[in-house]
Write a structure and sequence with these properties.
Elements (H helix, E strand, L loop, with lengths): L1 H28 L12 E2 L9 E3 L2 E13 L7 E6 L8 E4 L3 E8 L8 E3 L20 E2 L2 E3 L5 E6 L6 H7 L3 E6 L1 H4 L11 E9 L23 E4 L2 E2 L1 E7 L1 E8 L6 E5 L5 E6 L2 E9 L2 E3 L4 E7 L5 E7 L7 H6 L6 E13 L21 E8 L3 E2 L11 E4 L2 E9 L5 E5 L4 E6 L14 E4 L4 E8 L9 E4 L3 H6 L2 E7 L3
The protein binds CU-O-CU linkage and copper (II) ion (2 copies).
CU-O-CU linkage binds next to strand 7 and strand 32.
Length: 487
């Protein structure tokens, strides 16, 4: 009896000990970094600019959604999705005032959607979960570009499938121009001194194919240990100008990046999601959660090589969550190689512009959104048949978003751009001073912003608001609002 008890006690001790060691090993292995491991062997791909066709004063853009194979790891092939190609899609570009039409043909054998993230447009053209494109079908939304110059993007938004569809490779940039921005003398030669950077993390199998498995304990879903920029693994880019603008897009499913240069040089942040800031912000890091964009301008010296890196992001979670949500991870993203001679450029100076007024004093009401668990807003999961919020056109509102889970989330609103009033109990930090459509919401904190709904009423077609951590969105952390006339 004694002996049996002793055996039991020893046995339990061994199991617990092994568990603790295993747990520790797992905790340790959850930290991911490629810093120092890359050779920067591959020239960065620049997504081609899609030339529109002109028809009756309209700009027509043709996108064909297709499956294919891409070398995500050089020399190995992966089955992927893309638009007009095997992986990612071309960059679309239009100017304020343009009448655009998108012709999106789905040659995949699955239904999907294409959403224009950051675009102010009628809800029926938005490409959210209701605007499905069946296999073989072509969807042709159109609208007039009526918002300031900005870096937007497009990606699938099929309910419950967004994470997989984006992960397979469907995403691209949508750059908007306007006269004011064009007159500022900012670097704007696409792919030359104005470089799009679509940053994604992937898990890749040994044979180079996409691994769809989830991290065992990850609170935010799939985190990869390989980085692709514009679909290029281990990339470098050559530059020939002193001053270069980088358009950063976090098109990852779940990963938050904290981007800066390996030598800690500072840069000018000139734009965020919704367009130019009023004045450039001199920073050393810019943190981007999934869906967020930033434009920065940095200065280089002839002949130098400098690495663009993602440092450990500040997720403001407890240490356990931080580890499994990527808070301890760091990645080299891209090596920038400056030519021996660089075209000179004056510094970015002064005002970039004046933001359209969004006056909190005019707000007619405050709405509250509570992000809870990994799947709910205000205690509810997304229901395609339920309208969660009804907004009256021509009103300004304050939206207050609270993250009451211990998990990282962010918050994205379709159709509009907002200005942050209060961020985690303080005035917004420099990188959140401009127009935003997606914002990180730290655990147990609140973000308040002011937003205006100016037009495009339609009681039947809703817009979405949701967490842009795609697994959370797919699980139901999403809601719908309609914009309606006053009566
Ligand atoms: Cu980037 Cu609702 O989407
Ligand atoms: Cu969106
Ligand atoms: Cu979330």
């Amino acid at each position: 009896m004694r002996r049996a008890l002793l055996t039991l006690v020893v046995g339990v001790a061994i199991v617990l000990g092994a568990g603790a060691i295993g747990g520790f090993a797992y905790y340790s292995s959850a930290r991911t970094s490629n810093v120092g491991d890359l050779d920067f062997a591959n020239e960065l791909a620049i997504p081609p600019l899609l030339q529109p066709r002109e028809e009756d004063g309209r700009k027509i853009f043709d996108l064909t959604l297709q499956s294919g194979t891409a070398e995500l790891l050089p020399g190995k092939s992966a089955e992927t999705w893309g638009a007009n190609g095997a992986y990612l899609g071309p960059t679309l570009r239009a100017s304020r005032g343009d009448d655009v039409q998108l012709r999106v043909r789905n040659t995949l054998d699955e239904t999907t959607t294409i959403h224009w993230h950051g675009m102010h447009l009628p809800a029926a053209a938005d490409g959210g979960p209701h605007q499905t494109i069946a296999p073989g079908a072509t969807w042709t939304p159109g609208w007039e570009i009526d918002q300031p110059a900005a870096t937007l993007w497009y990606h699938p938004h099929l309910h419950r499938e967004t994470a997989d569809h984006v992960y397979r490779g469907l995403a691209g940039m949508f750059i908007l121009d306007d006269e004011r921005a064009a007159g500022l003398g900012l670097p704007d030669d696409y792919g030359v001194d104005d470089i799009p950077l679509i940053v994604q993390d992937k898990r890749l199998d040994d044979d180079g194919s996409l691994d769809f498995s989830q991290g065992l304990i990850s609170p935010t879903g799939r985190l990869g240990d390989e980085i692709l920029v514009n679909g290029t693994h281990d990339p470098y880019v050559e530059i020939r100008h002193e001053l270069v603008r980088l358009r950063l897009l976090n098109a990852s499913n779940a990963r938050v990046y904290n981007i800066g240069f390996a030598d800690d040089r500072r840069f000018d942040l000139i734009a965020t999601d919704g367009g130019l800031l009023e004045t450039p912000q001199r920073l050393g890091r810019i943190q981007l959660s999934p869906g967020e964009r930033a434009e920065l301008v940095a200065r280089f010296r002839p002949g130098e090589r400098v690495v663009l890196r993602s440092f450990e992001p500040d997720l403001a979670t407890d240490f356990f969550q931080a580890r499994f949500a990527g808070g301890d991870d760091s990645f080299d993203l891209l090596q920038i190689r400056a030519a021996p001679e660089l075209a000179p450029a004056p510094a970015v100076r002064g005002r970039l512009g004046t933001l359209e007024p969004l006056d909190a004093a005019e707000a007619s009401r405050t709405r509250h959104f509570e992000l809870s668990g990994n799947a709910q807003i205000n205690g509810k999961r997304m229901d395609m048949d339920r309208i969660d919020e009804v907004v009256t056109v021509d009103t300004t509102e304050i939206w207050e978003v609270r993250n009451s889970s211990g998990t990282p989330h962010n918050f994205h609103v379709h159709d509009v751009r907002f200005r942050i009033l209060e961020y985690a109990g303080s005035a917004p930090p420099p990188h959140l001073l401009g127009l935003k459509d997606t914002v990180y919401v730290p655990p147990d904190e609140t973000v308040r912003f002011v937003v205006r709904f100016s037009d495009y009423t339609n009681p039947h077609h809703p817009y979405m608001f949701h967490c842009h951590v795609l697994q959370h969105e797919d699980r139901g952390m999403m809601g719908q609002f309609v914009v309606v006339d006053r009566d």
